[in-house]
Structure formats: structure tokens, C-alpha cells
Predict the 3D structure of the following.
Amino acid sequence: MIDHRALAAGNISSNRLDLQLIANMIPEGSRVLDIGCGSGELLSILVSDRQVSGHGLELSQSGVNACVTKGLSVVQGDADRDLSYYPSDGFDFVILSQTLQATQHPQEVLQEMARIGKKLIISIPNFGYWRVRLDLLLKGRMPKTQTLHAQWYNTANIHLCTLLDFVDLAQLVGLEVQSHITVNKWRVRQSNGQISALDNLRSELGVFVLSPKQIDKTKQAV
């Protein structure tokens, strides 16, 4: 169990608990790429407090402008198209926070992230959360939660999934879950085990640390 009081991370807004959790995962001096970095909340903390070599990729011009004003190394770009320009194994950590569900091609994005990063940290809202299921069952309408707060007609989310769905996709592209944190209104729980059906039911948000699966070359030898 993680102490909520120990999660403070500089000036990260209180409604982005996933960013606070991610900030605490990054060792000092790491090479970091933050994809969909927004106005640079997380990246600025990592650069100033963890002395990382930090870079960002952000779609919106307003976000890029805000990052540049803070002195951050951020370029405008699209995760669906522009990750191919980054070198293989160029970063220790590649971060994608509550952005995967807004991409056009999540599988390809994960594959590119696995190519350019030694470890991936990804947070996603959970469409399998019990409140989401209950809203659909009782109201017959698209649900709204703290992490899924937009109306269905103006949301950027086009590929919503459950935590179990995400793990399936990660395995499909050759990624292994090293650890995960599940979050809801009442608790934050860290585990090195598998996501269970109960985790999938009671968690509003998931934060995953992943790495490319190691290939046993001795098994490939003829």
C-alpha cells in the first residue's frame, strides 16, 4: 500500500495522481521522453528535482509554448506519426500518461515506444471500473468519472480499454509488465503480480511499468 501523503511531487496538480506516482518512479539522471507532455507539469519536476535528461513530444501548440516558456526541451509532434524519428534505445524511460486511449493506432505506438525506450511507464483510465459498468448498466449512457470526465461527443478518447485489455495488448507487442499501480478514490495499491479481475473491477486508473521481453537466444540456437 502506498501512503498518499508521500506522493507530493512539486507543483503537479492534485487531480493528476498518476503524474505524482510516475515522478516517484524515475531515478536521478535518467534519460526520459515524455510523450503527450501537455504543459510540462511532470517533465519540469523530473528535470529540476531528478536532474533527468528530459525531452517531450506534445501535439498542441499551446502545450509546446508552455513547455518552452519553462525552459523544457519539447517539440511539437504526433505520437501516431513521429516516434519513428527517435533512435532505438535512446531513452531509459518513455512515459505516456493518459494518452494511449487518444491515439489512432495504440499497437503501433506501443511498438515504437518499446523500440526507443528501455522501460515504459504508461497510465490509462480503466473502462472496466465498477462505476463505469454500473452507469452503462443502469443509465444506458456513456459514463463520466474523474479520469473519464468529457462528454462522449467531445472527448479525445477513441480507444478506451480495461486494464486487462491493456495487458493483453502489451503482451501482443512483446512487452512484459514489471509492476503496476492501481488507483481509485480510496486507495493506491502497488504490485508486481498480474492484474486480477478484482483489480480490473475496482480501479479507476492503472499505472504500468513495462519492458521489452528478453529473448532467450540459447533456445533459438539450432
Notes: Strands lie at 31-35, 53-58, 74-76, 91-97, 117-125, 175-183, 188-191, 205-212. The longest strand covers residues 117-125. The radius of gyration is 17 Å.
